[in-house]
Structure formats: C-alpha cells, structure tokens
Amino acid sequence: AKRNANEPEFMQAVQEVAETVIPFIEENKKYQNKMLLERMVESERVIMFRIVWTDDKGETQVNRGYRIQMNSAIGPYKGGIRFHPSVNLSILKFLAFEQTFKNSLTTLPMGGGKGGADFDPKGKSDNEVMRFCQAFMTELSKHIGANTDVPAGDIGVGGREVGFMFGQYKRLRNEFTGVLTGKGISFGGSLVRPEATGYGNVYFANSMLQTKGDSFKGKTVVVSGSGNVAQYAAEKATQLGGKVVTMSDSAGYIYDADGIDATKLAYIMEIKNELRGRISDYLSKYPTAKYFAGKRPWEVKCDIALPCATQNELNEEEAKMLVANGCICVSEGANMPTTPEAVHVFQKAKILFAPGKASNAGGVATSGLEMSQNSLRLSWSSEEVDEKLKGIMLAIHASCVKYGTDAAGYVDYVKGANIAGFVKVADAMLAQGVV
Ligand code: NDP
Question: Which sites bind NAD(+) (predicted)?
C-alpha cells in the first residue's frame, strides 16, 4: 500500500478487489503462496512518455502519454486509451487493474492494460486531434503490437482517434495488423463494436432483472453520460421497452419526462459525435425537456440506473436517494462510477448492483472478437457478433452468480466478478512459474 499511497483511484480499485478476493484466498490453499495478489497489483510494465505536437496557431504543445502493461498472464495486454485532462498514473493504473479482471471474465484470451494522455480533445480541430494522435502513436508504436499489446478507445478516444492512430502505426511499421480495436469498418473494424459496451451493459442488467422474473419493459431508466457507452446503453434500454429520461455530460444533465426515444437519441448522437456539442443543446430541438446545469441525474426517480460517464460519479448520498426513490437495479456502464460507500448502500438495500468489470465487459469482449476476425482476415455479420456478445454477457452473469451468491440467495455481483476474474488469471500465473 505504501508504494501506491499517492494513487487514490488505484488504491480504491485494489481495495475493492482485495476485500472479496482475500477471504477466497484464505479458503483456497492453492492460491495462498507465491505472492499472487502482490504480483497482480504491480504492473508488469509502465511506460510514460513526452508527446510534442503543433497546434493550429503553429505553437508547440507538450503532453504526457502513458501505457500501463498490467498483466499478460492470459493474453496480450488489452485495454483502451483515454484522452482527458484528468489522466494520470493513478487513474490509468486503476483502469488497467480492473481491465485485467474484466478481460479474464470475458472468457477470451486477453491480458490487462490501459493507456492515455492528459490531452483535452474539447475544442480542438480535426487537424489538431490528428497531429496529436500521430505524435502519441509515434512513441506508443514502439511498445505495442498485435501479439503484444492491443489498445482501443475510451473517454475522448472514439473511431476518429483510433483511425488516426492506426494510420500512424501502419506508416511507421509498414504493416497492416490488428494492433488496435475499434477501427473503422472499412479497415478491419468489427460490426457492433461501437454499440458493444452500452448494449452489453443492458444485456447484463436484463440478466440480473430476469433473476427476479423482471425486465426493462415499462421501466424508467436514468442514464448518465452522453458518449459512446451512454448512447448505446440508452438505445438498447429503449429497444427493450424501457423509458430513458436522462442523459448528461460533465456540465449537467437533461431530463425528458416523455422519454428519449430513437429519434431524440439520434439527435443526441449528432450533437455529441458530429457537432461535438454539449448535452444542453438538446433543448434547442426539444424545448419541453429540462436542463440542470452542474448536477447529476441520480436525483430523478427511476427503476433502473445506468452510470455511463466516468469514475466516482455516484456517491453515497446519491445512492441513498436512488434507493429511497425505488430504484431496483444499478448496472455500471462506466468504470468504477460508484464510490465504495455507494456500493455498500445498494448492497445493504439488497438491490441488483453490477460492477463495471462485469457489466461493461461487452466492449472489450467485442474487441476480442475484432482481434479474432483480423487474425482470420474475415468479418462476421452484425447478427453473428451480437449473438456472440449476448452469449458472453450471459456467461459473465453466470460466473458472477456462481461465485457471488450468499446463503440467503442474494447475489453479490462485486464478489462474484472479482473471484471469477481472479481465478483464471491466478491459475495462469501459477502455471507459468514465478514471473
Ligand atoms: P466518451 O468520451 O465517449 O464519453 C464520456 C462521457 O462521460 C461524456 O458524456 C463526458 O462528458 C462524460 N464525462 C467524462 N468525464 C467526466 C467527468 N469528469 N465528469 C462528468 N462527466 C464526464 O467515453 P465512453 O463513453 O467511451 O466512456 C465512458 C465510460 O465507460 C468510461 O468510464 C470508460 O472507461 C467506460 N468504458 C468504455 C468502454 C468503451 O468501449 N468505450 C468500454 C468499457 C468501459 P463531457 O463531454 O462533458 O466530457
């Protein structure tokens, strides 16, 4: 702990895993030696580097880039790239640590990694974003490869950025390989990859609801965020019969009592993905909706909450508000959006709660499917990928139930996901010797 004392997000992620995995280790002799957990919390490798690029005014800019190669026990390092001014070592280590367990849960052969830069894409021109991505990849290309480390998107990194980074990698290495996932369809991307995290989250929430004989039909759904994950979580929740009433960004949230249906969601996608505007712009087309500046949507009465923006965006007080308002299910689309205190509130109230490493694993799972398609040099249809995604989410749900069900029948999905994720990585590490 001392070694990482100044990395609060990383400590938070490790603490949550340790709380559930240490008792399991104590009951299972096989995992009691060889410093397994100690090895898992130490990154195999951390790369930090300078990124220098030129803005549209011709001025030189300097940013810091990172790649955390956390664990390669079960496959090449795999995990997204985040561009956000808040990016630092602690945040990326927490994400890479979570990623290791998540990737293990997908049943696919992927290790854990994460990367990014403290670059702020907001307000930057396409050309600036391109030059930044090229400068970032110029260094990163030395450390990644289709069989070594395969990055993808995350906050601030979508199809546009992945395309620019892929182009630069290809230029530098003179090879066309599946070194990144989330690529455009015309150059090796997988159908359903953009939708996968949001869809997967809703499939997972639906599996949880089914254990209670329930579903999304007729439910009021509160979504936070309005980026990639939030957009497709809202789309699938609506398709399954739910009514999505909120979406948000870092400046505030919109509330539409009539529901954000497919047509309205298409407008949000246009605002966010093409115009690169703010969620408040929604009111210019739908003025009957309300906008709450500087607020988060958890105060809105709902049956299901899907936090899909960022870490620590749902605190204890907000969790209590959700429970008091009758919320029965919280499924994390983002990574660690719920603070530990808030998770305890949900678990104490015995409502359905899914941690991101289980419920948002559909994104990386589909990235794994993209890697397979690239290796085979073929592409599967949307239906094929969606079916595989559904199957993987069901399998993750089953693993959580297997390891997380208590004597009274309540499923602690946090415990289930942590132990199921741990077992596979631990077994592989033991088999590979002291490394
Ligand atoms: P995007 O960049 O597409 O969207 C991020 C959204 O979250 C935006 O609405 C953004 O608002 C909001 N947001 C970002 N930072 C903050 C903040 N500090 N406070 C409040 N709101 C914030 O990212 P994604 O949708 O890809 O990622 C969202 C979450 O899902 C992240 O936690 C990510 O790690 C996780 N995730 C993503 C996967 C993927 O496949 N993309 C896979 C698995 C997990 P604004 O525009 O104002 O910044």
Answer: 197, 228
**What is the residue extent of each domain of the chain?**
43-178, 194-359
226 annotated as a binding-site residue: no
95 residue type, one letter: L
CATH assignment of 194-359, among 3.40.50.720, 3.90.190.20, 3.60.150.10, 2.40.50.100: 3.40.50.720
How far apart CA 160 and CA 169 sit, in angstroms, is: 15
- Homologous superfamily in CATH for domain 43-178: Leucine Dehydrogenase, chain A, domain 1 (3.40.50.10860)
User: For residue 225, is it left (φ>0), alpha (ψ between -120 and 50) or beta?
Assistant: left
Report residue 146 as tokens. Answer: 């289709």
Token pair of 124 as six digits: 């930057």
What are the structure tokens assigned to 212, written together?
């209670």
166: how many CB neighbours lie within 10 A of its CB?
25
Check whether 1 has a pLDDT greater than 90.
no
| Residue scoring higher pLDDT (253 or 33) | 253
Q: Name the active-site residue from 2, 30, 34, 114.
A: 114
Q: Is 161 helix (H, G, I), strand (E, B) or coil?
A: helix
Count Cα atoms within 13 angstroms, Cβ side, for 89.
Answer: 12
Quick one: tokens of 21? 């995995």
pTM of the complete model: 0.97
Q: Whose CA is nearest to atom 4 of ligand 1?
A: 227
**Model confidence at 435: pLDDT above 90:** no
What letters, b where the CB count within 10 A reaches 16 and e where it falls short, cover 38-65?
Answer: eebbebbebbebebebeeeeeeebebeb
CA distance 155 to 168: 20
CA 307 to ligand 1 center in whole angstroms: 10
Query: Tens digits of per-residue pLDDT, 200-217?
Result: 999 999 999 999 999 999
pLDDT single digits (tens) 263-306: 999 999 999 999 999 999 999 999 999 999 999 999 999 999 99
Say whether 114 is catalytic: yes
Residue holding tokens 């400046």? 251
Give the Cα-Cα-Cα angle 356, 357, 363 (nearest 5 degrees). 85
